[in-house]
Amino acid sequence: MARDADEKAAPTRIRMPRRVVEKPIRQVAKRLLMALGVLALTTVIVYIDRDGYHDNANGTLDFLDSAYYATVTLSTTGYGDVVPHSDTARLVNILVITPLRVLFLIILVGTTLEVLTERTREEWRLNRWRSTLRDHTVVVGFGTKGRSAIQTLCATGLRKEQIVIVDPSTKVIETANADGFVGVVGDATRSDVLIRAEVQKARQIVIATQRDDTAVLVTLTARQLNRGAKIVAAVREEENAPLLRQSGADAVITSASAAGRLLGLSVLSPSAGAVMEDLIQQGSGLDLVERPVTKAEVGKSVRETEDLVVSVLRGHRLLGYDDHAASPLQLTDRVITIVRAAPVTPLSSPSE
Fold this sequence. Notes:
Helices cover 47% and strands 17% of the residues. By secondary structure, it is an alpha/beta fold. α8 (212-225) links the parallel β7 and β8 (230-235). Mean pLDDT is 81; it is low at 1-10.
């Protein structure tokens, strides 16, 4: 329920990853202390040379009058009731008080200038990101399924700059930003949210929402915006998989059924279950990799390749390694092989 409330309150916007050096409240507190320090220094300087100043009220200056004069002088108010009349006091005003006044104003307006500069820089980064983003991957949902999918994509060489995450939760997107990903806060069933993620220019779209009905709506919207992108979606219930395919998904993964099959295999053979878990966990142990056939492999049998080939993709046909039609290999074929993988750094988990 807390997440639903966060989703409703979160505005639709793009969040770029950035490194926060210091908290805003700490920056404001630091600037305030600096301003008070300049004010105190000015008060002391005026009080030391109080005989060189004239107060229209009683002719002399005490410490309170010095603080009053420092305040109205640094703030450029200058009522004129307290004025320097000696040459020394006027020289101190020229050489010391005036620079302190400039420093005081810089400290006060520094926060505003920093905010304006940061907004300008952020707008420039956003425009540059929009103009250079092409053939990227849009991931809808940054939960357990979405993070696992991104980890697999990054393990295959996809750069973080080529991944855009869409999620309705502001906290989740902040976590994605901390991991170095661009995030869009909003409901992915709305076309304007997906347009902000530049889904119309994406090469592939991963839909990993928490609900099956949401996955169907997102698939319909994404397919309407991009006819050529490869869409892969996850559903909980197997009975909803045909509906997702009709909505435009190229591949549908049933998470509940897949987990159940892996559980059953592990019961029958824990070792076989461990091997399957290793194969689907990209970046550690053994990996399943799809690659094109090399020129040196053309004309050879599937068993004659250096890698362990489990299937051959020829056109739209998927041939098993033991299928007589799979050999000899052709130049236009793609093979699915088992290879030894290098380890990959896991992504941090947001609190859900």
